Amino acid sequence: NPHLEKMKEDILYHFALGTGTHDFPALFGDVKFVCVGGSPSRMKAFIAYIAEELGLGSPGSDYPNICAGTDRYAMYKVGPVLSVSHGMGIPSISIMLHELIKLLYHAKCSDITIIRIGTSGGIGLEPGSVVITRQSVDATFKPQFEQVILGKTVIRSTNLDEQLAKELMQCSKEINQFNTVIGNTMCTLDFYEGQGRLDGAICLYNEEEKLQYLKEAYDSGVRNIEMESSVFAAMCNLSGVKGK
């Protein structure tokens, strides 16, 4: 964003961080991997797990929330790994990503990989399976993210890094603990009607129509459904960051 260069100070409001109050290169300059997920507690548990795996922490160690000045998001760091919560749905993760990408820019980070981890609804898979997203598709199975900007509809690509998908699949084979597939992820605007559930407050379709829709999704290559992947893919593409 060329406008950032004209700003005396960039305040990352929803992180409670700012270039005038924090030394971004000192705090985040060594970051190479960012993992994002919905809930703060999950991302804190994740950073504790990563610290143990990398040999950078001791059992029972506490990891302070870098964004403790706000209750919007939570952020934890150990070594080159940053773990950030993003809330639920496209609007919430979009706000977080704007500020995360600016944080990485101000910290002068390079060669960054961002991975979104979280639960999702599987289609045609055993419970507990892991889906590595090839591309995110909308609820009509198109690989695109649509957003209205200044009154105009803008459509952005949602393809994700193919080489990273292959590397993650190879890691899965080496670990050999989870059934893992590469497939498309459908991103919806809603947890209930948008995903064909029958137990929401409103439902104007029947089970047969639901199953037909899910079959069409499966036949198009969709293997799981969630609510954040489209804007995640679009923003990673636009900012030149490897994402998965």
TrEMBL record:
Ligand binding (substrate): 195, 197
Name of the protein: Uridine phosphorylase
Top-rank taxon, per record: Eukaryota
Keywords from the UniProt entry: Glycosyltransferase, Transferase
Catalytic activity: uridine + phosphate = alpha-D-ribose 1-phosphate + uracil
Family matches, as InterPro entries: Nucleoside_phosphorylase_CS, Nucleoside_phosphorylase_d, Nucleoside_phosphorylase_sf, Uridine_phosphorylase_euk
Cellular-component GO terms for this entry: cytosol
Top enzyme class: transferase
Residues involved in phosphate binding: 72, 116-119
Record-stated family: Belongs to the PNP/UDP phosphorylase family.
All copies of domain Nucleoside phosphorylase, residue ranges: 32-242
Known function: Catalyzes the reversible phosphorylytic cleavage of uridine to uracil and ribose-1-phosphate which can then be utilized as carbon and energy sources or in the rescue of pyrimidine bases for nucleotide synthesis. Shows broad substrate specificity and can also accept deoxyuridine and other analogous compounds.
Pfam families the UniProt entry points to: PNP_UDP_1 (PF01048)
EC number: 2.4.2.3
GO function terms (MF aspect): uridine phosphorylase activity
Protein's UniProt keywords contain Glycosyltransferase: yes
